[in-house]
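Expect sequence, tokenised fold; for instance:
***
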Amino acid sequence: MPDGSARRTGIALTERQRIAWLRLIRSDNVGPATFRDLINHCGSAENALAMLPELSARGGATRAIRIAGVQEAERELEAAHRFGARFVGIGEPDYPPALRQIEGAPPLLAMKGELSAATRPSVGVVGSRNASISGAKFAAMIARDCGRAGYTVTSGLARGIDTAAHRASLDTGTIAVLAGGLDQPYPPENVPLLDEITEGAGLAVSEMPFGWEPRARDFPRRNRLISGISLGVVVVEAAERSGSLITARMATDFGRLVFAVPGSPLDPRCHGTNGLLKQGAIVTTGSADVIEALAPLSQLDLFNGSVVEEPKKFSDILPPNDDDRAIIVSALGPTPVEVDDIIRHTGLPASTVYLILLELDLAGRLHRHVGGLVSIAMDA
């Protein structure tokens, strides 16, 4: 049985740091990967905020970058407090340890409920919104048994399989990952279920601002968190073009285990899961298949990975010159490439390449892709 009780490690942010972190991640063109690079380069969020205008201008921005203000951050922190939630930073003890390890992990998570649920090993259970009776029962069985074995159950609060998994693990601990702000749960009919989760042994999690209504493109971001929090993801029913397959693909990218429940070839809800089995997912016909496969992973020490690299002072790296910038821009195209390939192709120092990419990113001229790949924004 996994035991996460002794694994809570990390350093708490001061209130001043939390405000600076929130301002930085809410500023224009600053996503999780850019946030990390800024902290690495600038040494702190406060330094990064001060440097945003210069860095974006050097990257060729055509207008001033919008920087979230102190009052804006304070209002969001106050909204979280009124809602009974708090923001947890990536290096703090209550941040989900497995999520901390993935590329592009959110610097801050809004969390409401039993925070200790986030620090225990977790298994994701996802599947069709239009679940069959047998699919919902199977998902509930997996969730119930994994909960009794010491795992939290992570899912997306959607109808069908997600709902069944959450309900079956209310007593042992479940994590609901939201696509919108914590105060904008979807679907509306699951608001009572979310209240049960946060008032009991479970937790609600979101990386989005308070007041943010979920859009279609926000759900893959939510699926990324489900995969990142979990050591493995169980897909119970999924059609060929299901969001659950996105969750499974991301789980594979993160080095997580993917479990799939076989189903009838005549049932469209099983076409996606049967496809996962053909691709090498673990055949899952009972809870033991999941619990036995996850047992070695639940003992791994996920808490020694550094959150960010050793910070570099501004004096360590001189601003790149225009010629170097032109070389990088010329080398990039609409096709995503690895940063190491850019370094080899241009012959420029790695530190110079990373800094120019950061400048381009802040100027809105760079796209970041899964796997650390980058491409130029042709319409910028």
Q: What stands out?
A: The longest strand covers residues 108-113. The CA atoms of residues 260 and 283 lie 6 Å apart.
